[in-house]
Amino acid sequence: MITLARFPVPEEAHLFRMFLEANDVSAHVFDEHLVQIAWYYSDAIGGVRVVVDECQIEEATELSQNYFKSLSQGPHFITVARAWPIALIFSLIIGAPALFFGKRTVELSLGSSAKAKEPSNRS
Q1: Per residue, what are the HEC states of the chain?
Q2: Is 49:30 a contact under the CB 8 Å cutoff?
Q3: Distances from the Cα of 26 to the Cαs of 7, 61, 91, 98, in angstroms?
Q4: Is the pLDDT assigned to residue 21 strictly greater than 60?
């Protein structure tokens, strides 16, 4: 078995393995569990390896070049999240009543409990 590619995380290695297997190349993922258990060893051991049989290395090399080329050229649609108006409205709805009514309510609740907790010195 020959190492064809190395990846920092197991998910990327499995995607590449599935791509190879979809094109009739037998591939296996090695060192996956070690990286999942001790992720900080990933760089030390060379990451997660995808290995193929020696008899399929030429076909696998050609497929890997196509795979990585398509990743770099492929469409990368990034949708920008526009959640700030919702967060602003939500914080105003929650925050405005606390801003205007919160202090008075806190003073009233502390005042009534403070009077109830005062010891009486009447004998």
Answers
A1: CEEEEEECCHHHHHHHHHHHHHCCCCEEEECHHHHHHCHHHHHHHCCEEEEECHHHHHHHHHHHHHHHHHHHHCCCCCCCCCCHHHHHHHHHHHHHHHHHHHHHHHHHHHHHHHHHHCCCCCC
A2: yes
A3: 18, 13, 54, 63
A4: yes
3 and 50 Cβ atoms separated by less than 8 Å: yes
Q: Which residue has better confidence, 101 or 57?
A: 57
CA neighbor of 3 nearest in space, from 22, 35, 32, 28:
28
Q: Does residue 68 register a pLDDT over 60?
A: yes
Two tokens at 113?
Answer: 């409990």
Enter the pTM of the model: 0.57
pLDDT in tens, 34-61: 888 888 888 888 889 999 999 989 999 9
Contact by Cβ (8 Å): 53, 37: no
